[in-house]
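User: My collaborator sent over this chain with a note saying "see what the structure looks like." That's all I know about it. Can you take a look?
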Amino acid sequence: MQALFNMQREDPTKFILEVPRENIIEASLDQILKVNSKDHAGHDPLKKPISIRFVGEPGIDQGGVRKEYFMLVLKELLNPGYAMFNFNEDVQLYWINGRTFESNLKYELIGTLMGIAIYNNIFIDLPFPYACFKILLD
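Assistant: Without extra context I'll predict from the sequence alone. Here is the result:
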């Protein structure tokens, strides 16, 4: 089992993200920032199929771990404690909080994670207004 797991971790055809559940945002940001823009073969590592591993858990990612990862990350990012987004009760949508003290890197992480999810055909629930997506696409 360990040999199979190590083989998966070292798979050059995948973007492996290994994160602890208790520090999922910072660990994700750190690892995404450490990824070079291009690997030695000239490929973008973020455009490889993603494989998630939670630190200290033996699970092998067959799709369910990826879905759980994105669910946990988005739940944490939309958490009022981060104050990155404001929730509008009337329309049940989030909007970017212009008064947050969070760094722009965390917003970049959201954009990068959205791109990774789309690239890997993972549906994510981001209750943003259409105008927000239009701004992000610009």
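A starting point for your reply to your collaborator: The chain has one domain: 2-82+102-124.
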